[in-house]
Amino acid sequence: MRAVLSVSLPEKLARELEAFARETGRNKSDIVRESVSLYLWEARMKRLKKQLRPMAKKAGLLTEEDIFEQIS
Question: Ribbon-helix-helix protein CopG domain spans which residues (predicted)?
Fold first, then answer.
């Protein structure tokens, strides 16, 4: 099931979306759907990083490179 959402955009952003849709051959709904999905994923990742930062610090993992080296 899908929900319909009406969104107002500033004129410049609406023009950019229209141009991007034309250039890529995609419809605006697909572009907005993908954009919202990506935005929410990034927000969840930021929240998760913030929650895990104290545990990583206790383990001596101070940078993302430290974490990458630990899991590699």
Answer: 4-40
